[in-house]
Amino acid sequence: MNSRKISIFAGILSLVLVILACTFNIGGPSYPTPPILVSTEAVGELKSSLETAVAAGAQSGQITLTLTESQLTSYLSYKLLGQPHPLFYNPQVYLRAGQLKIYGTVKKGYFQATVRIIFNATIDNQGKLSIELYSADFGPLPIPNGFKEIVTATIQEAYSGALGPIATGFRLQSIMIEDGTMQIIGLIK
Question: Nearest Cα to 180, choosing from 66, 49, 38?
C-alpha cells in the first residue's frame, strides 16, 4: 500500500516538475515564412554598405544607402542580445509596403507569445528619420505600459547606432521601403 502511494506521489511530482520546466506558447500572430537568417556576415554587409555610402557621399554630397531585411534582422538581433532584459527575442524584420514589420517572441514567466510590431518610417521637418508605431499585436498578452515609447526609442537608437557618425551631418531627402529593402537617400550637410 505504501509503495502505491509513493508511486502516485512520484508520478504527480514528476508531472509538476515537467510542467514547471516548460514554456507554454499562448499564440499571437504567426511569423511570416521563410524566416530571415541571422548572421554576422549580414551585420558586416550593413557596416560595409554604410562605409561605401559615406565614401561615395564625400565625393558627391549625396548618400544613397540600401538596407536589406537580413541586415536589419541581424543587426537588431545582435543589439537585443546585448541587453540584459530585451523587450523580445528572435526578431525578424520585414520591409514591405512602406512599413517596417518586426516579429519577435515575448516571454513572461512560463508563457511566451509571438508579437508583431509595425512602424511607419517618414522624414521629419529637420530631415531626420521619424519612426512611428502603427500597430502592435501581442496576441493574448496585454501591451506593456510605456510600450510605444520603449520600442520607438529602441528602434530609433538602433538606426542612430547603425548610421553612427554620419547621422548628425546627414539630412534625409527620401526613404522608400518595399520588396525587402529600405532605401535611404540624403545629403551631407
Answer: 66
Cell of 93: 524584420
Q: SS3 for 102?
A: strand
Instruction: Domain count for the chain, please give it.
Output: 1
8 vs 10: CA distance, rounded Å: 5
Q: Which among 187, 164, 175, 155 has a CA at the least distance from the CA of 72?
A: 155
Domain span at residue 107 reads: 27-188
Q: Which helix (H) or strand (E) holds 114?
A: strand 111-123
DSSP 3-state of 12: helix
* 115's grid cell: 508579437
Euclidean distance between CA atoms 184 and 189, whole angstroms:
15
Q: What is the pLDDT of residues 38-93, one digit of tens each?
A: 999 999 998 898 888 888 888 888 888 899 999 999 998 988 888 888 878 899 99
